[in-house]
Amino acid sequence: MNGVSYVIDCGNGVARQMVLAKLKLASIRNVFLTHHHSDHNADYGNLLLLSWETDLATRVDAYGPPPLVEMTRLFLALNDYDIRTRIADEGRPPLRGLIAAHEITAGGPVMQDDNVKVTAALVDHPPVKPAFAYRFDCPDRSIVISGDTRPSQNLVKLAQGADVLVHEVMYLPALEQLIATETNAKTLREHLLASHTTSEQVGRIATEAGVKTLVLSHFVPGGYPFLKDEVWFDAVRPYFSGNLIVGRDLLEL
Ligand SMILES: [Zn+2]
Ligand SMILES: [Zn+2]
């Protein structure tokens, strides 16, 4: 928005994906983490380090559940050698002074600037606590990101009347096939059913929240067995009559 990038979650490869999306790494001003599962935070530190090694020279505010402050400190310690070398050898500003980590523990207002007002809501994603969804109210539209959650009334409230809801989704008929390939089948099945949202549920949630556009994201299963876009679309369509989009990497809306 207006040349500023707001990054929501930092899974593996987020810096590379930003470059592929033609977004300048130095344009990052804010990072929002929904929860501390590695598919959402593995590259939190790497994104900032790689951006700084490129051209980031301005402050970044990072928001997320505890222990974000400690994670930030430990990441900087882990990479201390590289960081010190580049400060001395390449004249870069100290990275430590550019990252401000803010821990959030409850729903409510998170931050506001000239472009956007950000609000968080607690969602249900056991055993990871707390886990958040975020709403971004911009002058031209409002966007809600569910993070990972089972069906959540807090999320329905947060997403009320939003233009775009990006929501995770799970396709039950393919779950047994996915689980059969895992050695930890029993506990994985229990986690998925207790902590995520099915295709039927996500359609009902989008309808209840009255959103204009629903974007499916964070697909379970995401790899094997591979499901075509039509399968996801058809699984949600009966429960939501608005604009329905099956998300993919580098999708622009
Ligand atoms: Zn998760
Ligand atoms: Zn996840």
Layout of strands and helices, then pairs:
Blueprint: E1 5-8, H1 14-20, E2 28-32, H2 38-41, H3 44-54, E3 60-64, H4 68-78, H5 80-90, E4 99-103, E5 108-112, E6 117-123, E7 131-137, E8 142-145, H6 153-158, E9 164-170, H7 175-180, H8 185-195, H9 199-209, E10 213-220, H10 229-236, E11 243-246
Parallel strand pairs: 1-2, 2-3, 3-4, 8-9, 9-10, 10-11
Antiparallel strand pairs: 5-6, 6-7, 7-8
Bound molecules: zinc ion (2 copies).
Structure description:
The chain is α/β, with parallel strands linked by helices. The protein is 34% helix and 24% strand. The chain contains ten helices and eleven strands. Strands 5-6-7-8-9-10-11 form a seven-stranded mixed sheet. Strand 8 (142-145), helix 6 and strand 9 form a beta-alpha-beta unit. The longest helix is centred in the first third of the chain and has 11 residues, at 44-54. It is globular and about 60 Å long. The two termini are 13 Å apart. The model has no long low-confidence stretch (mean pLDDT 96). It binds zinc ion (ZN) (2 copies). One zinc ion is lined by residues 37, 39-40, 148, 218.
